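Researcher: Please predict.
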Amino acid sequence: MRIKRYEAQTMKDGLRKVKSDFGAEAVILSAKNIRSSDESWTGRPPLVEIIAARERPEPGSKGDVSRDVVSQLDPIRQEIRDLKDVVSRLAFPRVPLPPNFDRVFQEMVFQGVRDDIALRLTLKALQDQKGPPEGTPPEREAVIESVVQQFPRPAPISLQGRGRPEVVALVGPTGVGKTTTLAKLAAYFALKVRKRVAILTIDSYRIAATQQLKVYGKIMGLTVDVVENSRQMESALRRRQDADLILIDTTGRSQRDRFRIQEMKRFFIGFPVIKHLVLSCNIRERNLEEIIERFGCLGLDRLVFTKVDEATTFGTILNMAFLTKIPISYLTIGQRVPEDIRKATPKIIACLIFSMSPLRRTEEGAADRRKRVAPNPRTG
């Protein structure tokens, strides 16, 4: 890693010097005003001091960046994210709202929706409201409709029938439920939609995960290929060209392990793969932002939120959708395969925010109906 100190008359001039030396890979470690030695008698304005670093080796340099050195920048990055969050909240004006709409606003904030996003949605609902501010339709319904209108368009898996398989990879940190989510998707498309599905896994580190997929594959009558490098990936994809959908399970990686994430990226080079980043609703929002940022080098196409049934607040789902602009494809609500997965429609997410979700209720109702119509196995 190269670290260099710069002095300039203005911040703009200093950043121009940093960019000239380090290019787009530059990381600003600190920036502050300093006094020059002759300032006292010349009357010159203070200088700007910038300390910058370049994480990656320059062309022609030998060796990789030390992961230990790079990891030292993580606390600095976290402080910068925290400061940006504080500034954005302070900069967003708090507009007086009618009492009923203010209660809806506070309800969203209590659910973890960021103040600025909650206010934007509430103001849009208030603007679209017909008649008196506290009249019909109810304020909650108006804000839910505002969420539905402004929410980034969801993007579940779509099989276009273009003569070649749709290739989808589930990526993300450890413990978020990638393998179980993949099994749910495989079962849905194979058993309910009646499509030809193939499964690949590059998770050769966890024997249990591979065995779990093979068991699921055997139950559903699906092929499961284990690949260990990009050459085997290419060969497996070529063998499964008769499938409608190819699902790829990946090894869970810590967002701090840049080397392993880059290693995973090599599996997808040269292949049209749609990458769904799998995130748990139980992860704190700051950590979610870091995960999305670090896995962003893979070229993320969708977000999947798991363990919705274990979460107590759901504002982070809304926040990530608005802040990242990455479409959300699915929500998972339990361990059952394939029942506990839903397309992430704006209406469902809005209902989650307002504790009106039909997810579990729908499943319980379906279970009750199955009990009523299913024959007793003892009586036939």
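Model: Residues 91-150 form one domain.
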